[in-house]
Write a sequence for this structure.
């Protein structure tokens, strides 16, 4: 397994070096390797398939122009996902993208997101309450600082492991856990205030 990983790293390094010299076939190798992961990452941040696809394409255009500046100091995936994160944040600020995916949808038989964040399930016979809570959670998530929002969506909605979030955001696992803890505390406080009203 480790030999396979080392072989993949060497193949990636060779593709990057070739791409830095203008080799389009090498660029296609990088595109095939990272397109899906970048799209999923951007979708988690933007909550819009159309915007995520457009921005994924923009990232690869930018990558082709800037790959010469990659110096192998950090893993290529970290460098690339940091580029994606920065472009996504710029896009969010510019377009004021809001989460549009319904958070009351059941995922893989698990409780919907707003129920998991609130720490309890909503009675099935109170659809109005459920809809109100969903809108409160969506609003609460939208109001989180960008750094917290990305971590919450990746962990709670996409169910990514801490290590994967760490790699995608180029943060330590400890920082991911800390941001998630703080984000959950903020959300819990907002939901508690809502329940008192």
């Amino acid at each position: 397994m480790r030999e396979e990983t080392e072989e993949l790293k060497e193949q990636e390094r060779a593709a990057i070096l070739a791409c830095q010299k203008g080799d389009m076939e090498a660029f296609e190798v990088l595109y095939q390797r990272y397109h899906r992961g970048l799209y999923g990452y951007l979708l988690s941040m933007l909550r819009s398939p159309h915007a995520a696809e457009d921005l994924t394409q923009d990232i690869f255009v930018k990558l082709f122009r800037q790959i010469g500046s990659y110096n192998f100091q950090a893993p290529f995936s970290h460098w690339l996902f940091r580029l994606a994160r920065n472009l996504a944040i710029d896009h969010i600020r510019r377009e004021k993208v809001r989460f549009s995916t319904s958070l009351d949808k059941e995922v893989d038989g698990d409780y919907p997101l707003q129920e998991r964040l609130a720490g309890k399930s909503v009675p099935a016979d109170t659809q109005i309450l459920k809809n109100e809570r969903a809108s409160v959670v969506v609003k609460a998530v939208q109001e989180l600082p960008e750094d917290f929002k990305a971590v919450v969506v990746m962990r709670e909605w996409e169910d990514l492991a801490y290590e994967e979030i760490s790699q995608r955001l180029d943060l330590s696992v400890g920082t991911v856990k800390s941001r998630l803890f703080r984000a959950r505390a903020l959300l819990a406080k907002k939901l508690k205030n809502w329940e008192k009203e």
